[in-house]
Amino acid sequence: MKLGVFAVLFSKKTLDEMLDYIKSKGLDTVEIGTGGYVGDAHCKPAELLADEAKLEQFRQAFDSRGITISALSCHGNNLHPNQEIADEHHTTFVNTVKLASKLGVKNVVTFSGCPGESENSKHPVWITCPWPNDFSEVVDWQWENKVIPYWKEQAKLLEEYDVNVAVEPHPGFIVYNTETILRLRKECGDRIGANFDPSHYFWQGMNPVNSIKALGDAIFHFHAKDTRIDPQNNSLNGVLDTKSYRDIANRSWVFRTVGYGHGEDVWRDIISALQTIGYQGAISIEHEDGLMSVNEGFTKAVAFLKDMVIEKEAKDLWWA
Questions:
Q1: Considering the entire predicted model, what is its pTM?
Q2: Of 54, 179, 207, 256, which is most buried by a Cβ count within 10 Å?
Q3: 7, 31 in Cβ contact below 8 A?
Q4: What CA–CA distance (Å, rounded) separates 71 from 77?
């Protein structure tokens, strides 16, 4: 495993400035945003695909510094009921897959998407309970009419370009927990796996270690981000919380830098679980902490994780 970072944190820096900065922190792998909700400050796939000189210049920016790309990420809603949004995010996804293939990057990270409740919807609809029965009918319609057909078609694209998609389980989208990512993979093929982010598991009440072991080789990429559950607010209102992320004092939970939601023992267990299943990819630091600046959160995350993530080849044990 290698410790890296999701570079959208540094969208205000140029590509060269960003790469020099993360290199100065001792990291040598980076996840690059290519559009969708995370933006494309450092990488515009359509431009690079259309210009071989620009593509080579982009590649050399990494190679000259000894930095690898762990994933290209275009988190979006390709199933959005607003067709204009869906088309934009789908086009970005397709271009990102093609660019990943040219660059030799194995994983593209995105969301599963979330349709509306019918062909007449204007907004995505995420269902959180089975009753009244309307809700169960909507979930069935979404999977059978939108999710499975779309991702079966994308599996063909992924196979053609020899790229995998790491779908991030995230509330608000059709894939949000262990069983939904496994269902998508079962229905649509092994080119589809998970971008595992413990922060989304923590606040839903799941155990990341158990989920990692259940997913096994379906984990293609990993985000290092934490969540703090507020004991008082959670005891009053539970984890379904629609208040602004800026309303930190009143929310039931907030995203935190690793180590500020759960302690070292919890994170060591998570890293150990990844080692147990044979995960060899990146531990990509993601910062969404409303109580820390980007630089502070990133620097503290590197310091917290650097001695947990040991890059080495497996060796035979003398007693095995």
A1: 0.96
A2: 256
A3: yes
A4: 18
Which tokens in the block code for residue 239?
A: 């984890």
- In this structure, what token pair is assigned to residue 160? 């053609």
* Rounded CA Rg of the chain: 19
CB-based contacts of 7, cutoff 8 Å, min separation 6: 18, 22, 30, 31, 32, 33, 42
CA dist 78 → 90, 173, 234, 267, 287 (Å): 5, 11, 32, 32, 24
The predicted-structure confidence for 226-283, as pLDDT tens digits, reads as follows: 999 999 999 999 999 999 999 999 999 999 999 999 999 999 999 999 999 999 999 9
Burial code of 30-55, b = ≥16 C-beta within 10 A, e = fewer? bbbbbbbebebbbbbbbebeeeeeeb
DSSP-based three-state secondary structure for 193 = strand
Could you tell me the CATH superfamily of domain 2-305? Answer: Divalent-metal-dependent TIM barrel enzymes (3.20.20.150)
φ, ψ dihedrals at 29, nearest 5°: -145, 145
